Amino acid sequence: MQLLGQNVSPPHLNDLLLGKTVKRPVLRGVALFKRHLQGSEVWFIVLATGVGLLAGVMAALLSHTAHLLQSILYGFSPDLRLSALPELQPWHLLALPMGGFILGVLRLIFPRRARQPIDVIEANALYGGRIPLRDSLMVSLQTLISNGFGASVGLEAAYAQMGGGMASKIGQWLDLKRASLRTLVGAGAGAAIGAAFNAPLAGAFYAFEIVLGAYTPAALAPVAAASLTAVVAAQLMQNEPFVIASTIGRDISLPGYLLFALLGIICAGVGIVIIRLVASAEALVRRLPIGDVWRPLVGGICLMPVAFVAPQALSSGHGAMQLFLAQQSLILTLLAVFVLKMCGSVLSLAFGFRGGLFFASLFLGSLLGSAFAMTVNHIWPAANLDPTNSALVGMAGLAVGIVGGPMTMSLLVLEVTHDFALTAAVVTAALCCSAIMREYFGYSFSTWRLHLRGEAIRTPRDIGWVRSLTAAHLMRKNHTTLPDTISIASLREQVPLGSTSRVLLVDAAGDYHGLVLTAEAYGEGVDPDGPASQIARQTDVYVRPDMDIAAIQRVFEHFGVDDLAVVSEDHKLMGLLTEKYVTRRYAEELEQSQREFFGEN
């Protein structure tokens, strides 16, 4: 456009040019940062620190929001805890079905997909750390509503999901490698847990033991940096620290260690019972003639009498734990509250309230530990077990049985009590519980729920790369194929000896009809005029294209063959697999996985 002899650009064109001028340096900066992240451990630690900051802020916001909801709905002062209230007005209990109704409305607005939402453990085990943002937001919102309206579940699922989910989204945006993305997801989840409990070491080991599945040199610095940053962020946001007083300085004798080891074994048995009880209750509720939308509402109604008898059964149980640790209750009271809290948690999860059993297991374990000390002191007064210390040991022991992570729970006790002598006893009980769980059950609460859904997951170790190597991905398509009606003489004419070791037979429609070894076609005593199909083998031995490399190797081993045809569901021949090639590819991928696992390039 020309005006008075001058070139003047239209206003909108100037805006576009300015936008491009601003956008290009930003894109170049992002690309440069991505390149640094791919090859620099220091830059990755910086990224993990930023993720930890976000995780700490989100954990504090979730905690404050849930506590504010509870104080409004149940009418108590914000400096108190719901589970520490001595009694509740009956009309306050209407908050439980109200929360269930809101969850039902959410399910109606956002109908459940064919699959369950992916949590951080499943994402790291199967999907290389990839978590859909919708899953993270939905799980966190449902957990916030469940806990905020008083259901007997903790916020830990929301903490870990938001921390890990944000880390996953950031890592995917930055195109991180599979191993780096898994580490970042573990750092985000662990940082959120560390911020919630004001325990950076416990948060870091939560990432190692429960989300990543192992301690690795490559993950140590970023996970620790994220957890420390998250705790500082939560403290700045006035998140209430989780502190427990212990009998500091009291020596623990050898009989005391043996008794605490016994307590760890008891915790393992109780943990198995609780995990199976939740699964059985969920299966029973699914068989009831109640739609998914109405189940949380019915669950809230079922929780009302439990909450009326014992408000300590509501929410995660943080206030109730502090209350029972500060006073010496009768053993019958401890056991009654234990049963009611367990019933509350089972009902909440079975009827569709969302949440975790992390803090519930801590509270239940503390009750079990106190009852154990009182029982032992009654039977054997010379033992003189301290009920408070026994409660802390039981707290960690049962948490190991249900959640997993013996070092996570041991360090949690250390960080909330600052009692090194007691921590040694906690480690003893935690290791005993962990050993029994591995020997006689083999799952944590999270992996057991995945197992019931058909996933072969026992730990969060990365097995997703195994599933990505399918028969369709590995098969060769340059195999020799002949009609199943061909004669052996014609086969000899078309396939000279030494040209290929096997021939695949198909009919006119392309259906698979077996495999012929070339050497057998040239063997003595074979009638040249006979059909090649008479010497065909493996007519019913083949693999499907979606079978992973581990399943393929099991087929090779079971049938003792060297070659396998890949056949579709409609019996069409797709390709060929050789045992030698499959074994070599598995070894290469396993070696690559190990290099990434230890941070080697």
Q: Which outline best applies? A: elongated
Question: So what's the CATH class of the largest domain?
Answer: Mainly Alpha
Largest sheet: 3 strands, mixed
- Indicate the percent of residues in helices: 55-70%
What structural category characterises the helix and strand content?
mainly alpha
Number of helices: 24
Question: What name is given to the CATH topology of the largest domain?
Answer: Clc chloride channel
Strand content: 5-15%
Number of domains: 3
Could you name the CATH homologous superfamily of the largest domain? Clc chloride channel
The CATH architecture of the largest domain is Orthogonal Bundle
Mean pLDDT: 86
Strand order of the largest sheet: 3-4-5
Instruction: Please tell me how large the radius of gyration is.
Output: 30 Å
Unreliable spans: 1-9
The total of beta strands comes to 8
How many angstroms does the end-to-end distance come to?
57 Å
Plain-language structure description:
This protein has 601 residues and is mostly helical. The chain has 3 domains: 1-32; 83-162 and 240-462, Orthogonal Bundle (Clc chloride channel); 465-597, CBS-domain. It has 24 helices and 8 strands. Strands 3-4-5 form a 3-stranded mixed beta sheet. It has a 3-stranded mixed beta sheet with strand order 6-7-8. A two-stranded antiparallel sheet has the order 1-2. β3 (481-483), α21 and β4 (502-506) form a beta-alpha-beta unit. The longest helix has 34 residues, at 41-74. The radius of gyration is 30 Å and the shape is elongated. Mean pLDDT is 86; it is low at 1-9.
